[in-house]
Protein 1
Amino acid sequence: MATACHYGMPLRDCNVLIRTLARRGSFARVMAVYYDLRGRGLVADSFTYPFVLKAIGVLKLSVEGRKAHASAVKTGFRWDAYTASSLMEMYTMLGRADVARKLFDEMPHRFLVLWNMMIRCYIRCGRFAAAVSLAEEMERSGVTPDRATLVTAVTACSRAGNLSLGRRIHAYMNALFGFSLPLANALVDMYTKNDCLQEAVKLFESMPERNIISWTILVSGYALAGQLDMARALFYQCTEKDLILWTAMINACVQHGSYEEALTLFRNMQMQGVEPDRFTVVTLLTCCANIGALDQGEWIHQYAEGRKMKLDAVLGTALIEMYSKCGHVDKALQVFWQMQGKDAAAWTAIICGLATNGQASRALELFEEMQIGKAKPDGITFIGVLSACCHGGLVDEGRKHFQAMKEVYQIEPRIEHYSCLVNLLGRAGLLDEAEKLIRDMPVDKDTMPIFGALLTACKAHGNVEMSERLTKQIPEQDSRNPDVNVLVSNVYATASRWDDAIRVRSKMTHPTSKKTAGCSLIENITLFTFSFTAGRGFTEVPFVPLELLDARFRVPHSKITLTRFESDNGLDMTSFPNIWATNSITGSGSMNAVDDISGVNIAM
């Protein structure tokens, strides 16, 4: 409607319209007005170019960008400071920061606006060290900065991990301008992101004025430093909480595994009348995925649809991971095909989800489609691909993809990739090949997963000799891991060597050797998630009807390990079936098994 009557307008009115449209984000309409005035022979001026060049950058119109640049040179506005800074910003948005720097260097007079823009350009394209270097060059040149310059420079210092210039700015902040809240917030953020939490707290406490951004930065800083209790205390100390602060606290809880607290915060946030945005929704979906809270995840999905949130790559990937980890892979596929702009993360999420849920052939089909498209697989994608091969017993396919990862995509395999391949070979009974792969692989700090995979295969195939040989190869720090003793004892138990099994298990009675307790999470009809942890007294566990467990879980096969032990009343219970050691468990809850590092398949 705004552009329906722009035809025939004089340049001044066109400039007003262009500015209004640009501020509304209607960049396509900005270009329509620009094409019209150019077609009528009107010459753009310094009031036209900044908004038109911004529109060109946002819309990624490289050809139009070069034409506009040539027009600015022809009409003499190339040397106008605001036109030049807009050209620099445009080229950076088009991925040509090198051209932006060339324009900056060619300017006969480097005005402050040009310094500020070039520093921001470097930050925009991720060249933080270059941004800091330019800020230091500006300092040496004797150019007097303004508040915007200092905030931009501190942001660059924060991202580059270079605190020298940032501390100098902090030192003369008050001397130059007096207290500046945006600059103080930027400094607190810089300190928290570079392991200088004490300096951040000291500055925060000395600030004569704070806003919600100040509180949010420090709450996130405490969470980043692993101090969830301090983050929580500061959060409740703030009397006026906005959406960003609520989201920061929820995200802190998710990062530290306090998933139920995160969901409780979400409920409290809603009761306070604060409506979540897409960032909050993505964080909450991650939370639901980690605890298998399907019902709450579905409710959040419905909430996002009700609020007309765009199903882009970020939101779509979070939904795919949530549904996949809760075992609803059909729903994950539905979300995947509805997504707009599938990126590598989305493809990886659905491939890993299908693989983990046992749909190996479908996962590999999607991987083939991914390779045909524009998305490029990464290391995590190949973990999903190798897992799919493992679930499907596709040994040759697994070998092929492992080689392609190195030779075609130049991705150096990590311990997770070796573990997948060892698991694949072990399940196929190719134990010698798996052992050779371990011998030939580069030394890694954390070798336990790969040894665990082969020890599990030794148990499945009754190869006691290899398990004993592997135990001697495990690094000393890993040999004290109780999971190693559990696996080795299970190998002995499978071979009915009970004395050896008991001897290995007895090592776990040492004070420094403690096995991590298994944990189960059950979501009931009220949307609350109950947590059960092995070793806790029954008084700490809420009552859950047997019908609920029967409805949520099913045991698809009955491969068991016989565990020999004596009950408290002295009865020999050798034949008691330890089904949780090897069974695949499926349901809308999630369960971590007790006795097997890699032999339990969980619906994730």
Protein 2
Amino acid sequence: MEEFENEPPRKTSWLRFSIRSLLFLTLLVAVFLAGRYGNRHVFPSQLSGAWEATLPKGFVRTVTVTHLEEDRFLLTSGGSVFNGVYQWQGDRLVVVQPDDKRMKGLAWKWNDGSMTLIGEPAGTPTGSSYLGTKMERLEEQEKEK
């Protein structure tokens, strides 16, 4: 018994636990950031082409997205308030030169292959709100039919 009483107290290995915790935390952060980056990174080929826009009131329009340069795209549709030059910012397509000057503030959010209108000018200058308009690839629509 005397042998155990004279021994210095054992140091706990909190450092080992701490390193494991840090490695695990680093792994979680890396997975989280990879997921966020993976959803944001969109290649021009994913945006370019024909899209079908379904407006909140059920109207459907065909929209063409054309890659101009780097992160800029042109949206065109017959008589559409969405027409203009857009810039890719994070996970959004934001209008930088609208054809209709009243439509500054349009922003589309990328959602795994589709886009949803999440931003529009304050006060609905055209008289209607288009928030929630969803654009899906026209080719994907035809495959489902």
